[in-house]
Amino acid sequence: MSSLDTVRDGYRSFDEREDAPVLKGAVGFGLLAALPYIIEIDVAGMELAAALSLKVLILTLIYAYTAQAWNIMSGYTGQFSFGHAAFFGIGAYATQALVVDYAINPWFGMFVGGGVAALYGLLIGFLSFRFNLRGHYFALATLAFAELVRFVIVNMSELHGANGYFKPFPRDYDAAYGLLAFQFESDLPYYYLILGFLLVVTVVSWAVKNSWIGLYFFAIREDERAASSVGVPAFRYKLLGIAISAFFTALGGAYWSMYFNTIRPDTVFALFKNVELLLPAVVGGPGTVVGPIIGSFIVTPMSEIARTSFTGINGLDRVIYGAFLIVIVIYSPRGVVSWPERGRALYRRVRGSGGEE
Amino acid sequence: MRLVSSVALSLPLQGGGLGRFVDPFVQFVIDVVNMEAVLLQLLVFGLLLGGVYALTALGLTMIFGVMDVINFAHGAFLVVGMYTVWLASTTVGLSPFLGIPLAAVVLFVLGVVVHVLTVEPIIEAPQQNQLIATLGVLFIVQSGIEILFSPDPQQVSLSLGSIELGGVFVPRGQLYALLIALGTMLAVRALLNRTDLGRRIRGTANNREGARYVGINVPRINYLTFGIGAALAGIAGGSIALFQRFDPFTGETYLINAFVIVILGGLGSFPGAFVGGLIIGLIQVFGGYYLPGTTAQVLIFLLFIGTLLVKPEGLFGGAGA
């Protein structure tokens, strides 16, 4: 027995422990918490911070968060939504509209946004699922619902139309910089805040997956008619999925609007935003809990680094991004989380054929 | 008559509340009652635009009908068509009317290449994978054009002027675009209904499995269909270039409306694409005249959602490609 096998067996016995997922999660999030310091470690005169700034890390966690929220609905129940920008934008707009126009604390506005988004999600779900839309038709319907909100807002002067909102100073709504004001003077607290968001949504996602709800969700994804025939209330559970997903996506939008200075219909509701929000989940592995986080650590830094390194040629980063999308879906349709398993299968095949000779 | 004038009196109150949503429709009804000349003009503009919209949707609906792929790259194909016509006319001085067939050839080749590289390998994969792959193509082509020709709007210099018919202006550029659209649609219809290749394409659209059993080379049909669909986008883009300024991102707007048309008319249906195109063209022109800002687009999306819900197979659904 080689030392490699010892390690593997040790890991396997650890994997079988009941609290293994909790421990793994704790280690994972512990790593994420240490990340802002890790990137500054100097290794032979090189530090990761040169390529990976704190801003990129924050963006990475934002998209990990939104992809996790998208995953609860689309990854688990298999109803592919292409319109999550609707919920994201609603969260951002509710927060900004309340804080700018009425000086209401953004935390309150965030939950208002979450509620409105959940209701909008229920409306979309009720209409779409009632009329049995699925596959392409459902994806296009969600896209249409997202574009609908965008054009409604562009044409509403009450919501500042196409100009959008400019984030106010904390003193404008009687607060000082800090957690309560949802605004900080440096990026580090922002990082830990989005990490907290990500922790919450990941725990929710994990809890959903490991409860009867998850069981119903996956039954619907695998074969909806079979699930219905054994008594799974598919319609109600699909609605539950879209409502949870919409709620959390809107909170991500609220965070976005408090981190960046401006929001406009063209940014938070953009056609491209629909993709950005869900892509980490598809890259990482739809329907898995770690997939969206791992996926975001691949997609987001890559796209940010491409954007900052090719400033000379406008649009080159999008060419690279597009090529990356194609490569990912062609070579890894089940996501990055399936790589170890694929690697093991390859290893077994190589060793198996070697043994026969 | 009294009803109409009392309604007209309430018009100055517009701007607040629900008035701004109601007033344009009231205004429209008043104009219809009074038989305003502007209505005829708008109708002509709407039909002209609708014909071109129908052509933009044609390739999309064909690809969807045959291989069940939502092709996001279609928007980029339209833009390549526009730039081909523009490039041919500015560098070699080729007439835009000869540039359009050239665009069709260029796009056919591009379409086949894109299909073989990105769609064929995952044709059996879950549907969202093809959607993401074609979206990747959209980004590459769109930004590629931006890099090559700058993001500034371009224009094919053509001074065609317009014809006046009984008080109605018909811009020549748009008229020719409409004629090209109609001609192309008839040609594609003939191709599908009268040729052997057309029969194979329709057979594959009806039943991929069955097509394979009777000896149709389905992968070949796939790439030919994708190429023809892209070529149609090239013709559509070239026709749009006859009367409109464009930039690398013009395709996105047309793409979204093409989706609406395809769903409205029925996925895979040709007459559906035509009627859907006319409906969207009319809504845009009338909406642009009566409604503030881009509210017409809101109407289009409501119509889209309504269609998806009530009749997802579309107006002409089930008619086949």
Automatic annotation (TrEMBL), chain A:
Query: According to Swiss-Prot or TrEMBL, what is its membrane topology?
Result: Multi-pass membrane protein
The principal localisation class reads: membrane
Q: Does the record carry Membrane as a key word? A: yes
One protein family per Pfam: BPD_transp_2
Annotated Gene Ontology MF terms? branched-chain amino acid transmembrane transporter activity
**Stretches that traverse the bilayer:** 21-39, 45-64, 76-95, 107-129, 136-153, 190-218, 239-257, 277-299, 319-337
InterPro entries on file: ABC_transp_permease, LivM-like
Establish whether keyword rRNA-binding is in the entry.
no
What is the protein named? Branched-chain amino acid ABC transporter permease
* Biological classification of the source: Archaea, Methanobacteriati, Methanobacteriota, Stenosarchaea group, Halobacteria
